[in-house]
Amino acid sequence: MAEATRQVTVALGERQYTIDIGRGLLAQPARLQAAIKARQVVVISNEVVAPLYLAHLQAALKDRQFAAVTLRDGEQEKRLESMLPVFDEMLVNGFDRDCQVVALGGGVIGDLAGFVAATYQRGVDFIQIPTTLLAMVDSSVGGKTGVNHPRGKNMIGAFHQPRAVLADLDVLETLPDREFLAGMAEVIKYALLGDREFLDWLEANLEAVMARDPEALSFVVERACQNKAAIVAADERESGQRALLNLGHTFGHAIEAALGYGEWLHGEAIGAGLCMAAALSERAGWLSPDERQRAETLVERTGLPTRAPGGIGSARFREFMARDKKNRGGALRLVLLRGLGDAIVTADYPAAALEATLASTDHG
Ligand SMILES: NC(=O)c1ccc[n+]([C@@H]2O[C@H](COP(=O)([O-])OP(=O)(O)OC[C@H]3O[C@@H](n4cnc5c(N)ncnc54)[C@H](O)[C@@H]3O)[C@@H](O)[C@H]2O)c1
Ligand SMILES: O=C(O)C(=O)C[C@@H](O)[C@H](O)[C@H](O)COP(=O)(O)O
Ligand SMILES: [Zn+2]
Asked: Options 3.40.50.1970, 3.90.190.20, 3.40.50.2000, 3.30.360.10; which CATH number does 6-174 get?
């Protein structure tokens, strides 16, 4: 029997929206038409995803003024310049402020398309159709949009919530293993930062998730979205607890930028970043060696990196970390673990623990 569609609500008052998680969603024209209501629609996708899934949207929205922009693939394309052809297409076709932007792709397309929507004529609606595990469990939800700068990840952007998120699990069938694994880093992140029960479940069911078992997968996407929706609803613009969603990211973003965008996938860098945050927490005396090992073992079992690549060096790590958006008054704020499932954002950790954690990356 076909599984029912699961729904998670992001409770943001007048900007409230739902995340539909199910199978065959893209093959249901009525569902697409209900989610994408505008007369003028521009779909932003890339050269990998568009040939696979754009036709569903074209068919369902054939009574609309429809435009599609297909960008090149990869994290290195998440930059300001890539937005220009989209704006050109919208302007040439006379798109007005009632139009809707649809992101059809992974986190790169979602972040960029969201930022296009946030800035086109000072802001238009957008819909997220995530096509990677990472985008389904994290990037399509919460309204962080933006692009990278060579000096730092996501340095240019805006908070702009989508109107709806449609996560069709069927599209994960074409997702390569490496990209699927990248999504697992963010899944593990939720468990470590605040969901102990989910951590136990993941440890027991990791093989099923990795084998993309349908039940396990829809549970993981729903649970991750529930976790994210609760945090975003409580702190939409990251004045407090939303920063917990950055567990592993101060290190991970430094790895991505230092290596050059796309060298390591975001999720790969976050895998190593989670382990570095756990190691620092152990050095600070907050996590027991067993707890630290438990976190690292879970990351290791997915096949994601548990160590930063050698050769970046403490000084370069610090250079990128100094620009992290969580920093205040020159103090480097990190998301660390007081226990498994219990993260905090703090600048109050032993300097020597950070030094040792960065020094440990110099392993050649
Ligand atoms: N806004 C947020 O809250 C948030 C959260 C987490 C990550 N991010 C951002 O998301 C980005 C990473 O996202 P990602 O891991 O999805 O990477 P991605 O968007 O680059 O997608 C990964 C790869 O999979 C391909 N692909 C996508 N869907 C496919 C499908 N169904 N079948 C076959 N191939 C497919 C893409 O073309 C790409 O090559 C990073 O830029 C990161 O900073 C943002
Ligand atoms: O939604 C959030 O908040 C997150 O931090 C989710 C992260 O997984 C994501 O990578 C986000 O883009 C990082 O945001 P940034 O503010 O550190 O750039
Ligand atoms: Zn992330």
From this structure: 3.40.50.1970
The domain covering 177-359 belongs, at the CATH homologous superfamily level, to Dehydroquinate synthase-like - alpha domain (1.20.1090.10)
Q: Is the CB of 142 under 6 A from ligand 2?
A: yes
Q: Please name which ligand lies nearest the alpha carbon of 134.
A: 1
In this prediction, residue 298 has a pLDDT band, given cuts at 50, 70 and 90, of very high
Residue 160 CB–ligand 2 contact under 6 Å: no
Atom of ligand 1 nearest to the CA of 141: 3
The CA radius of gyration of the chain, in Å to the nearest whole number, is: 20
Q: Is the shortest distance between the CB of 245 and ligand 2 below 6 Å?
A: yes
Active site residues: 122, 144, 186, 228, 238, 242, 246, 249, 253, 266
State pLDDT tens for residues 195-230: 999 999 999 999 999 999 999 999 999 999 999 999
Q: What is the band of 191 on the pLDDT scale with cuts at 50, 70, 90? A: very high
Spatial CA neighbour of 308 closest among 337, 353, 270, 336:
270
Handedness of CA 173, 179, 181, 187 (dihedral sign): negative
Which residues, other chains included, contact 82 with Cβ-Cβ below 8 Å and sequence gap of 6+? 71, 72, 112, 147
Give the distance (Å) from ligand 3 centre to CA of residue 266: 7
Residues of the chain with CATH 1.20.1090.10: 177-359
Answer for the pair 213, 360: CB distance below 8 angstroms, yes or no.
no
Give the model confidence (pLDDT) of 106-153 as tens digits: 999 999 999 999 999 999 999 999 999 999 999 999 999 999 999 999
Please indicate whether residue 179, judged by its CB atom, sits closer than 6 Å to ligand 2: no
Instruction: Locate 306 and state its tokens.
Output: 């548990």
- Name the segment(s) of the chain with CATH classification 3.40.50.1970: 6-174
Annotated ligand binding at 186? The verdict is yes
